Amino acid sequence: TSLSTPKKKKRDDGMREHVTGCARSEGYYKIDKKDKLKYLNNSRAFAEEPPADTQVRNPPVPAVNGIWRSEQRRLLSSFTGSCDSDLLKFNQLKFRKKKLKFCKSHIHDWGLFAMEPIAADEMVIEYVGQNIRQVIADMREKRYEDEGIGSSYMFRVDHDTIIDATKCGNFARFINHSCNPNCYAKVITVESQKKIVIYSKQHINVNEEITYDYKFPIEDVKIPCLCGSENCRGTLN
């Protein structure tokens, strides 16, 4: 047990020579600070020296946050003209959602209001809910009436699909109807799935209520409109 440990040899370059051929098999050992500096200096010099054929064609780009963000905006603007702008805007909306709040509205019950300025032709919010078929929508509408739920938040996507946000949705269900709205609804396709997104028609100021035209089909039983705009039609349908 009192065998003396053999003195570790060093290579010509000053680095320690591993007798077993593998540093991991020799357990934990301390490395002299001088050896660390030599290794770091050698590795840094190797990393900073690019290949001769790429020194001119690929100059180093400074990793500065401001430059990186401006480069991303430039690429996004260039993609917008050639790719699907709706998809890019939808990805932006998921990355940074608009600041919105719901509170009492002078139009009807609750409403959705902007907490930040919104420019024209921007995605404001996605109408989120459960995708159901027409048959299920008819059954749920009757059940909601029996349960005493005054308002059902159903939005038709196409002939076969309806989004029900009555019990499973987001703030978009609080958007009120207006005959002179500042937003409009649009159906877009993202990864082969249809989604309803609310776009801004014009610039929207802070604390301004978000509204769009429901475009209900014409029916005999009329639903009164309370938007109060100058060109109000009087009814939603």
TrEMBL record:
Highest taxon, organism lineage: Eukaryota
Example of a GO MF term: histone H3K4 methyltransferase activity
Location of the protein in the cell: Nucleus
One Gene Ontology CC term in the entry: Set1C/COMPASS complex
Domain (SET) ranges: 98-215
Domain Post-SET, residue spans: 221-237
Gene Ontology biological-process entries: methylation
Membrane-spanning ranges: none
Alphabetical list of Pfam families matching this protein: N-SET, SET
Keyword terms of this UniProt record: Chromatin regulator, Methyltransferase, Nucleus, RNA-binding, S-adenosyl-L-methionine, Transcription, Transcription regulation, Transferase
Protein's recorded name: SET1B methyltransferase
Species name: Bombycilla garrulus (Bohemian waxwing)
Gene for this chain: Setd1b_0
